[in-house]
UniProtKB/TrEMBL annotation:
Residue span of region Disordered: 154-175, 199-226
Residue ranges annotated for the HTH myb-type domain, each copy included: 9-61, 62-116
Identification of the protein by name: Uncharacterized protein
Keywords of the record: DNA-binding, Nucleus, Repeat
InterPro entries xrefs: Homeodomain-like_sf (IPR009057), Myb_dom (IPR017930), Myb_TF_plants (IPR015495), SANT/Myb (IPR001005)
Cell compartments where the protein resides: Nucleus
Gene3D superfamilies per the UniProt record, alphabetical: Homeodomain-like
Chain intervals with Polar residues compositional bias: 203-216
Organismal lineage: Eukaryota, Viridiplantae, Streptophyta, Embryophyta, Tracheophyta
Sample GO molecular function, one term: DNA binding
Domain Myb-like: 9-61, 62-112
This protein's record includes keyword Nucleus: yes
Cellular compartments per GO CC: nucleus
Organism of provenance: Linum tenue
Amino acid sequence: MGRSPCCNKDGVKKGAWSTEEDQILFDYINKHGHGSWRTLPKNAGLLRWGKSCRLRWTNYLRPDIKRGPFTPDEEATIVKLQGTLGNKWAAIASQMPGRTDNEIKNFWNTHLKKRLSTPLPLPLPNTNIKIEGDSSSPLSTTTRHMAQWESTRVEAEARLPSSRPGKQQQQQQHKFNQDYYLKLWNSDIGKSFRDINKGGGCESSTSQASSLTKLGSGSVDDDTLATTTTTTTTKTCSAAAAIVKRSDSSETNEFTNYSDTALKQLLDIPGGSGMDFLEDESDDFINFLDLRCV
DNA sequence: AATTGAAGCAACCGCCATCCG
DNA sequence: ACGGATGGCGGTTGCTTCAAT
C-alpha cells in the first residue's frame, strides 16, 4: 500500500516504510521518546527525514491509533465538525481519540464528501444535528446556535494547555487564561450549552472517548479473534476491522447489530494521554504488530 | 482469465506558525 | 526584535487493491 521507494536523494529514503524501519522507529521512540524529530533519524539509524518519521509515527505506529472502519457515530461526528470547522482536520481529529487527521481527511474525501453530494441519508445516531446541504431539512435557529457552540467548544479544547514542560507550559497557560474561546466556553452561557449536550442530544466525542474501555494489547479475547478470520491481505486489517468489515458500516447501520461494548473493546488500542502506554515495555512491537496486522 | 477503471489510503510537498538563540 | 530551525497542517500524489466487464 502507498508509494514504493522512488529515490535515495542525499541518502534519504522515500516511499513506503518497511517493517524493519517501522520496528527501528517504534523501538527508538519506545526507549527515548521522539525528542527532536530532526535528530531522531540520525540517532535511531534511519535513512529518513525527521518529518517522515513524525508522519509515520503519528499516522501509523502510534499505539493509540484506532483502526478499522469509521462507526456511524464517528461519521456523524466528522460531518458535524466539518460543518462547523471546515477542513480543520487536526482540530477534528483532536475530538476523535484514536483517529488521525490524515485518516479523517482521507475518509472525508473518499466517502463522506461524495455521499453528502448524493441524496442518500447519512447515519446519524445520537445526534439531532441536521446536515448542511440537506435541502429538505434546513438548519433551525437552535441547531445553528448549537453548531456555533460546538465550534466554540472545539476551539476551546484545542487551546487547552498541552503537557509541555516548564516555561513553555506557563506561556501556554497564560494564553489559555486569556483565550477568548475559553472565556466564552466557561461562561454561564457556555455552561448552559454543555448541560444541554449532557442531556443527550448532541453527543460529545470527548465524553465518548472517556467512556471507552482501556485494554492492554494482550487482553483481546483470543476466542473472539479466532472467529474473525478474513481473506483480506491489507496489513492494516486488525481483528476488529475484520469483524466490522462483515457488516460494512459505511452504507448501513448493521454495525449496531454487534455488541457495542465488544466492538469498542476490540477497536480501542490502549493509549490514554501522552506516552503512558510506554510504561509497559513488554514485547511491544511484536505484540503491537500481531494485534494490528493479519 | 485478462484487462481496465475506480476506490482507498499511505506518504510526500509546501506553506505557515511557533520556538529559540 | 530578528531570523533560522523546527514542527504542524492541509492539499495532493501515486501505488495497491478490488470490482466490473
